[in-house]
C-alpha cells in the first residue's frame, strides 16, 4: 500500500468512526426497536467497498469497529461487529455478481438486511432464545430502507466527488 492509499484508508476509517460515534449520541426514533439507527458509517463503508480492494475494506471495518467501541462500549461492539461482519460478507458476495446483475444500491440494501440479521442472531445467542428473531421482519424493512438511502448517498458521492469517482473507475475495472 502506498502513502496515498494509506491516507485514503485512514480518512475513510476516521470518517466512519466519527459518523458512528455521532450517530450513537442521537436518540433512537424507532419506538419499536430501541437502539435502531440509520447506520451513517455505512455510507463510508459502501464508498470503501467500491474504491478499495477487499483486504483494505476488511482492515478498515475492523479498525472502525474497534475504535468506535472505545467510545460506545463493549456491549455495543458485540452487536455492531456481528452485523458488520455478516453485512460486509453478504455485500462482498453480491458484488461478485457484477454490475450487470446488481447495482451499488442493491448491494447496500442487501447489506442493510444482513446487518440486522447479524445483530439479531447475536442477540438471540446471548439471550438464549430465538424469540428475539421476531423483530426481523420490522428491522429488515427499516434496514433495507436505510440500505437504500445509504446506497443512493454512496452513488451520489461517487458521481459528484472527483477523487472518489476516479478511485471507483480504477477499482470497478476489476469488478466488471
Automatic annotation (TrEMBL):
The chain crosses the membrane at residues 6-26, 38-54, 66-92, 104-126, 132-152. InterPro entries: Hpre_diP_synt_I, Hpre_diP_synth_I. Signal peptide: none annotated. It comes from the Bacteria. Keywords: Membrane, Transmembrane, Transmembrane helix. The keyword Transmembrane helix applies. This is Gx transporter family protein.
Amino acid at each position: 500500500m502506498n502513502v496515498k492509499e494509506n491516507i485514503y484508508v485512514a480518512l475513510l476509517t476516521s470518517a466512519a468512526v466519527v459518523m458512528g460515534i455521532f450517530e450513537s449520541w442521537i436518540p433512537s426514533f424507532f419506538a419499536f426497536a430501541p437502539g435502531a439507527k440509520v447506520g451513517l458509517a455505512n455510507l463510508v463503508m459502501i464508498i470503501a467497498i467500491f474504491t478499495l480492494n477487499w483486504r483494505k475494506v476488511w482492515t478498515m471495518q475492523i479498525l472502525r469497529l474497534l475504535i468506535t467501541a472505545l467510545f460506545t462500549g463493549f456491549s455495543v461492539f458485540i452487536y455492531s461487529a456481528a452485523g458488520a461482519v455478516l453485512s460486509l460478507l453478504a455485500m462482498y458476495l453480491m458484488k461478485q455478481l457484477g454490475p450487470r446483475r446488481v447495482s451499488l444500491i442493491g448491494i447496500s440494501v442487501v447489506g442493510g438486511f444482513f446487518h440486522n440479521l447479524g445483530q439479531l442472531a447475536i442477540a438471540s445467542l446471548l439471550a438464549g432464545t430465538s424469540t428475539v428473531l421476531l423483530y426481523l421482519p420490522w428491522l429488515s424493512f427499516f434496514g433495507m430502507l436505510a440500505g437504500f438511502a445509504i446506497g443512493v448517498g454512496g452513488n451520489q458521492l461517487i458521481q459528484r466527488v472527483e477523487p472518489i469517482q476516479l478511485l471507483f473507475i480504477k477499482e470497478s475495472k476489476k469488478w466488471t
